[in-house]
Every structure is written in C-alpha cells, then in structure tokens.
Amino acid sequence: MDEVLVGTIVASTLRVSVPLILCALAGVLCERSGVIDLGLEGKMLFTAFTTAAIGVASGSLLLALAAALTVGVLLSMLHGYACVSHGGDQVVLGMAITMTAAGLTVVLGIAWFAEGGQTPPVPDSVRPGGWFGGIGARAAQLPVVGPAFALAFFGHNPFVYLALVLVAGVWWLLYRTRFGLRLRAAGENPAMVDAAGVSVLRLRYQALALNGLLSGLAGAYLVLAQNPSFIPHMTAGRGYMALAAMIFGKWHPVGALWACLLFGFLDAVSIRLQGAETPLLGAVPVQAIQALPYLMTVVLLAGFIGRAVAPKALGRPYVKES
Amino acid sequence: MSQPVELPRWMDVAVLPAVNLAFALLMAGAVVALVGFEPGQVLGLLVKGAFGSKAGISYTLYYATTFVFTGLAVAVAFHGGLFNIGGEGQAIMGGLGAGLVALAFGAHLPAWAMLPLMVLAAGLFGMTWAAVPGALQAWRGSHIVIATIMFNFIAAALLSYLLGHALKEPGNMSPESRAFAASARLPGMHEALAWLGIAWPRTPLNLSLLLAVAAAAGVYLALWKSAPGYALRAFGFAPDAARYAGMRPRRVILASMAASGALAGMVGVNEIAGVHGRLLPDFVAGAGFAGIAVGLIGRNHPAGIVLAALLFGALHQGGSELAFEISGFSRDMVFMLQGLIVLFAGAMAQVAAPGLARAWRLVSLPRGGRHG
Which CATH number fits domain B50-359: 1.10.600, 1.10.760, 1.10.150, 1.10.3470? Predict the structure, then answer.
C-alpha cells in the first residue's frame, strides 16, 4: 500500500513538474544570453490558449502543437524586437506580455467559443496517450518495488520524457557546443563576444527563439496533458514559479531540473496533506507548503543558503561601441 | 542598433507618450473590431459609462483612488532606481493590517481613533512588505524585482491561510472575516456629501479619495521639494554620483521601498475599510500590476499619475458598464488594454522615437534651417 503511495507521489511530482521544467529551461537559455524573461507566465498562457483553440478547431495534435510553438516564437521575437533591438526595459516587457496575455486570451476565448473565456475540451485525438506502458507492465512484475516503480516512471505522457531529454539537450547545447559558449559569453561579457566578431544581437535572438519554442511546449502541455480545455488564467503563477526554480537552480539546466522537481513535489504533496496530521509538525497548512518555493527562492537569493549569481550582463541591452 | 534619440523636451514629455498610448488604443481597437464589435460605438459607450452619470463618475473616481495609490507606489520606487512589482502583495498586506486592527479594536474604539489607526496599520503592513525585499537588496544583494514577485505570492498565501483559519467567520461558507464594527468603516462619499446636504448616489467611492489626493500632493512635495526626496531622485538617476556625493545607498533603497510599500498599502484602506467592511480574498484584483501601467503613462510624476489613474479608472468603470450593455463584452478587454499600454508606453517606449525625431526634423528644418 505504502509503495503504491510513493509511486503515485513520484508520478504526480513528475507530471506537475513538466511545465515548470520546460519554462525554466526557456528562462535559462534566455537569461544566460543576457535577456531577462519575466514574460514566461504570459508566453505559457498565450500558447496554452493557442493549443486549445487550434486543437478544438482542427482536431489535430500536430497543428495544435505547431501553432503553440509558432506563437511562442513570435512572442519571443517581440521580446527581442523591443528589448534586444530597441533596448527596451526587459522587466517591463515581461510584465506587458503577461498582462496582455491574461486579458487577450479571455477576450478571444469569449468571442470564439462563447463559454465565458473557456474553450471546449480538445478532442481525445489531440491529446497523446501514455508511453512505455508495455515496459511498465513488465516492470510491475518485479518483486517488492515493482508496482510502485511502474506507477512512478512508466505510462506517462510523452511530454514528460521529452522534458527530461530536453534538460540534457539544453545542458549539452550550453556547455558542450561553441554556440552555447558564445551564448553564455553574451550574457557575461557581451563586449568580448562582439570583439571576437560574433553578433551579440544574433545570439540573443537565437536564445529567444529557443526560449519561445520551450515556453510554447510548456503552454501546450497544460492543455494536451493536464486540463483538456483552456481556462482563463490557467497558468496560475507557474511561469513565476519556473522563474523561481531557474534562480534556485542557479541558472543551470540541471540545477533548474532539481528545483522544478522539488517545487513539483511540494505541489503534489500539498494536495495530499490538506487537513492531514504529520508526525512532527501537526497539521501543516497547505498555504505554507505552497508559499515555500517562493520563500526558499528569496532566502537563496539573499545568500543565506548558498548563493545564486545571475549572469553579469543580465538585463542590460547591448549597445555597440562606435 | 538604435542609439538614444534626441527629441525636444516637450515632445519627449507629451508627444511620445501620446503616440505610444495611441498605438496601444489602436491595437485594442483592432482586437475589438476583430471580435466583432464596433470600436467607435464601444468607445462612446465606454465614455458614457465612465462619465455619463453621477454614479458612473463616482465609480470612476473609486477605481482611480486605488490606481493613484499603486501608481504612486511604482513611481516612488522608480525614482529611487528600483522597480517595485510587489504592489499587489503590499496592497494585500495593507488590507490585512487595516483588517486586523479593525477586528481587534473595532468594538472598543470610536471612529475618530479607529480610522486613523487603520490607515496607519495599512501603511505599516505595506511598508514592511516592501522594506524586507528592499533591505535584502541593499544588504544582501538580492534582486528587488524577483524578491517582490516572490513576496506577492507569499502575501497571497498568508491572506488565504488566515481567512481559512484564524480570521474566518464561523458559520460563513466563504473565506471571509466577520464584518467590522461601524466605527471601523470609512464613510462613503454619499454619506459625507449628505452631511453637507448634497444628495449623491450610493457607490463604493469613499473618503479614501481625499487620502489619494493628499498622497499625490505629499509625494510631489516629498520628492521635488525636500532634501531627502532630492537625494532619492539623485540616487535613482545616477547611483555612482550620489555615492560620491556622500549619500548612503542602502538607506536610500530602504526608504524608497518603505515609502512605496506604504502607498501600495493604502489600497487596503480604500477597499477593506472603505468598501467591503470585512477582510476577504482577491480585493486587490490586479491593482498592483495596473499601477505599473499608471506609473508608465503618468511618467512617474504625481500629476501625471493622477491623470493616468483617472484614465484607468474610467476604463475600468466604462468596461464594467460595457460588459453589462453588450453581451459578449468582458472587462478582460480592459485588462488587455492595460497590458498593451505597458507594452507600447513601457517596453517599446523608445521604438517610436527615431521616427518621431525624423518627422520633427522634416517639419522644423525648412523653417529654422539647420541648427547645430
């Protein structure tokens, strides 16, 4: 019985962590190139809406996903146009995207679907099924830990596995390729990158394009794997939590992964702990667990436990010397 | 790569913001047309809803009151070189402060003692909620933007917890506190005007309006007519120069965040003491974020902020009326416009500048010749 409980908690931790992981990776790429992204929440909301709207209209997973990725990249290009090309305030741009998304998605939702801002659920043909169910069934045969193991790691939505692969992919890109080295340099010392004859602007636009793809995936996941209809404000602060996880993970893809899993775990247990007594602390208020990721991020940023140092040129538009 | 563009000061102060605002309105108008409404008709109804009746004007002023507070909060931090996006959380804490003293002492104190106490508590709670991120930035080097975002969520969780447990009214299904005693309710404008013998419809507009006017005047005097205010602006404008001049950056950061938070906390007075008369969730409803738009449009000057707050108050009131009158229209249209304004007047504020400068040169050169 207890093993099954552990299995369920691991499984739900993985599932709620996926949008955080995708978003945090988007943030890592963007911020390591020197551009702040406070618009993750808005990008995710826009792309979740796109996925639902196109999914309902076309009934095709491919089209819905392609539309979400396109919208994600377009938003990132707006981000680049305002902040990289024109030196606009990156924090303000992020707020603008998030505020506009919160309003525009509902306006369009009401106009197109007349359900108070919600969309109808996307048809089942749009939502991918679980993967590795076969291996899971065989793993469940293992003695003692088998059933919990199978429950925890197999039969998930393909996005769950994709997110984990992407963590490795982003790590490889950032730390094992020339492009990644240049991208990180653009966030630390853009003048040096420029002096080496590499365009800082181009690098930052490339980072933003990848950021758009990843935040598009995160938004799509909310509709394709979690709730089949778009609901107004359905991101519910996940973009900001991913931002916190990115900082908590010290702007490193693997660090961000652990932070996302930790925050996801807190989210998963907070629902189970509602009203339950714990051995040491008595009844833990759900709100305390929900606020914990934010509190931990503040404490970490203040350098009380370890230190998270942002890329040096973060938030500063690069102006070429003439 | 765009270099900063030189514009005449009057263009920079008046024309550029107007052009940016026009862009945002045009975009919003395009969306309105896209979803099948007549932009002209919508605008007409919006203006009529916001200014067409005594009740409409009252509601506009009521919304504007809240936006003056959050707009000033953004501005005061901005002049200190800080971006406070924690207005939302600071306003929640302000309401909590006002609510706690009202619930604790409301039954024992008369209104003349209770109301100032509530204002004080709202200010102190909001101030604390902004001062902590300020102190963390000043002494521990953490980033104010991130810390204030995190504090928004922590404040919301705290209020939600308290309303679910300690402060919850027994027997009430919704997470609300019990109603305050009569002495802890800020008189509505209709009551205040009735004392003067003027009949006025009953609306949420309350005496907080006067507090907002006083706050705007106070911020103007403090920032532009006092030595500490000058120091704050100098620090925000050129931190290194200010440091050379002997100003202590840590104290400036702390002071500007504290003042900013206290102003945001006043939202609690307007909403909790003035309107609801009890503590309840979601009373801030995005006003903290709207403050960013108000500050940007008002160019972070109290006079500009009052005007911008009136504009946003009118949008919110007009938007609510529209949602009533036209089926399929929702107030989210106003939230979208708010976002577009932050986009065009904030993040893309300088995008239009080169074009404007070219246009200005075309107009001014033939007459004035080339001036060096």
Answer: 1.10.3470
